[in-house]
Amino acid sequence: MENFTTAKSSEGFQDWDTFVSQYWQKEPVVLHDTVLSSADDIFQTVILACEKYCAQEEGVYLKLYVNGKQILQDLPQYLPHTEDGSPKGYEQRLQRELNAESFILFITGFERYNAKLYHRAQDFLSHLFQHTGIPAGHAELELFLGRYTYTPGGIHKEECTNFQWVIDGDKTMHTWPESTWNTETLSVNLQHDPTSHEEEYFLEDVSLNDTRHGSKALRGKAGDILYWPSKYWHVGETPELSMAITLAIYMHGRPYQEVLQTVQQLVEQHIGSSNIAPAYPFPTSTNTSLESALPASLHQPFAIIKELTSTRLLQQALLERWLKRASNLSLSKTLELLPEKVFTEAESIHYVSPRPILYTQLDPQTFLYAANGHCATINTEIHLAQLLDFLNTGATITISNALAQYSPMQTARASTELHQIITFLYRAYAISVE
Q: Which superkingdom does the taxonomy of this entry point to (predicted)?
């Protein structure tokens, strides 16, 4: 299998022109000398994500397989915790408690609790999407921790294209072009991924032992990325302990669904729970025109949709949805907002995200502005466009100077609004305040 060595850089992969022209959606390759995060940092994030999952907080999904079987009973006690200390410590505990000869822990949503990792993924995607465009679908991060002969379920494929960072240990990914097997003559198990809501196809009649010799094997160690295009059949293999993070990118999407979902969200906000109908009326009259009339419970949402399309409410909601997508590059998860904090006029603000603050002006004083997948609306005296353009340059400014430069009137209202803007950007991991 051909390897592709990039220029060494503390910022990771660089040679995008070569990668896109030779490998993107064409063939698998190993990218060397890349950086994502340390194994210790990722493992601490895994522990936190598991704690959130056990607390039944939304946003984290995980599965644990031991000796080929999914653990369902007493799952929380077999997840990583602080006392494990490291992936190796976790592996040893599973060996003691479950006689684990093999295991795999799969997690999504963990990146919500690690801003450094999240920003690193954004930076990577930002360079890639300059060549490919922002996905109309979505992108998500998936973590695989374990020691196993092959991925549970065996050889499979999805619609996504994949970059898998090897964080710790060694990892092999066996890959085959989609045309390798005729799925019309083989038994294929179609599953729906509960996190991506996309379809996965598993080969039931083909074993890795029978086909390993015919694969393009991507072999990576810590610091490498294993890349394979969408619809490539693949299966992972890691006989010794390893930890890896996959960035799965679903490029294709249906724009009309964005509009429909926005309309549905707005209608639900207007109606609430009042539009629940146990049944539609059954006319007892012999007059068929009464039975053909639209029921009153359908008139209500229809009237709301007519109102939405005749005002700027729908357009504003669509703009907000787009700014959320564009500001986090279609990542399906967003960073968990930081707690609110009170700032003094003497403190300085500095932009720290790899993605710029995005904004659009609805009227002379009303703005939508977004960072890292979060969006806010404000009617303000602040010259917001100029302030955000300044912050996007990476320059530093004190809060008092920002008020003086971007609010000529310097009213109490302007001061309150500036602090509101700064608080939102801070909570969304867009700026540091110190």
A: Bacteria
